[in-house]
Amino acid sequence: MKRRKRLINWLFEHTQRFYLRFKNKEPWLISAEMLLEMSPESFGYRLGSFLKGNGFELIPKVERHDAYHLLTGFSTSVQDEIAMQYMCFGNGKRTPYLLAVLFLGTFLLPEYFAYYRKAYTFGKVSNSFHHFDFRMVLPVNYEIFRSAVFSEETSRKLTAIQQHYSEQNIHLKTI
Predict the structure, then answer these.
(1) pLDDT one-digit tens code per residue, 76-88
(2) Can you give the residue range of the structural domain that contains 166?
């Protein structure tokens, strides 16, 4: 499984550069440091904290991807990246890149399919979020925005599923 995850990481890194060449969006031109200057309750500040905590900066033209991580609570592990795309698919997002991730992720890591299916279901039952211009959401209170997308029950169940699969991943590493 370790090799398959490395292959997926390699594919993410190399296809991302290709994908960005054809992306027709203007970059936000905002750094993690700039986000950390926002109100501590804001989505932007939380996004800056997420980025700094992971040693990242926003990826120009696809900044919303990191916003999805923050909003949904998925980590940047390979299986969580794929599960997050399943959630976005369940929420109505349709792009060729997303479909490729779903296909390859399912093919290369089928042992997580139950997790992917649950993520898809959470995307279906959540209020639509895939269409937001997250740059406009940056000043909004994080908790209020998140509660507008996920019911309290959905949020609690999603966190529990993510923790379960995170613990399972730790267990798989020790085998």
Answers:
(1) 999 999 999 999 9
(2) 2-12+29-174
